[in-house]
Structure formats: C-alpha cells, structure tokens
Amino acid sequence: MGSVAVLLRLMPHGVDTDLKAVANAVKESVPAGVQIRGMQVKDIAYGLKSLLVSAVMDDTGGVLDSLEHALAKVPGVESVEVMEEGLL
Fold first, then answer.
1. Dist CA 28 CA 14 (whole Å)
2. Which CATH number is correct for 3-87, 3.80.10.10, 3.30.70.60, 3.10.129.10, 3.90.1210.10?
3. Residues 1, 57 contacting (CB under 8 angstroms)
4. What is the layout of strands, in order, in the sheet containing 77-87?
5. Residue 38 needs a FRET pair 20 to 30 A away by CA distance; which of 49, 62, 81, 85 works?
C-alpha cells in the first residue's frame, strides 16, 4: 500500500471570508488517516483569495472522497477542487 499526495483548492464564499479561520477549521475537520502537510493563501482576482491545502494519505479507496466532503462542510468554504494528485 502506498501513499498519495493531493493538492486541493478551497474557494471561500466571498472576499470577506476569514481564510485564517478556514485554515484552523480545516486542521480540525480532516478524517483519520489524512495528514495536512501545508496550507497557502493564493490570490485569485479582484481581492478574492483561495486556500491551497496539501495533504498526504494512504491510497485506500474512498479516503480522498471523505476528505473532500469533510472540507466542503467547513464554514466559509464555497467549493473544494482537487488540483493535483500523485503517488509518493
């Protein structure tokens, strides 16, 4: 069994969303077996910013889906998109 590295982009509800609060909530909401390796705020356009989250998990089926669903429920998150995925 290997590990998978994933880069996700979380888009906030709007320009007024506190991405520090979102980042703290992300750390608390990840399912078991997922390690958050880093987070970065990235400018999109016109004051809108996104939160990039890098995570590592086992390549067991369904873990990525459960991570996406957990992050989509974080207050202030409009959408979750997998940007990159690869085996380690």
1. 22
2. 3.30.70.60
3. no
4. 34-45, 48-58, 3-12, 77-87
5. 62
Predicted local distance difference test score (pLDDT) of residue 60: 85
Whole-number pLDDT of residue 61:
84
Burial degree of 9 (CB within 10 A; 0-12, 13-18, 19+): middle
Cα–Cα distance for residue pair 45/28, rounded to 1 Å? 28
> What Å distances lie between residue 72 and 1, 10, 31, 53, CA to CA?
27, 8, 13, 13
Q: Crossing angle, helix 63-72 and helix 19-29, to 10 degrees? A: 140
Alpha helices in the chain (DSSP H): 19-29, 63-72
